[in-house]
User: What shape does this take?
Amino acid sequence: MPEKRTIKKAQTAKRHGKSASTQAGAFVHESIEHIRKGKHGAKNAKQAIAIGLSEARRAGVAIPDKSKKKSTAKKATGRIALKKTSATRSKAAVKRLKKEPTSSVSHAALSRHARKVVHKR
Assistant: This one.
């Protein structure tokens, strides 16, 4: 669940006429901060960015979904789950996320990822 200040940043960007990717940047930044603090885990920078973009889609930012499948796009729209996740499963998921590396979103890792993406263009 995104923080209120992140949603507020995205809404402000939308009001100022910024693009959808700029609005989503607030969510990506938040996910990177969460991973650095150990609240969440990601194996690499690409995954960290994907987590932020997914949260942005759920919050209503109009980012086009790269996926060709409609089922994947439906999952990201933020439908409410019918059943509550069991406490045991939730605890196991948190335990697993804590074991993920935090170095995946270090300044060096993000810089490496950015350079790789630019060279592919």
Residues 4-120 form one domain.
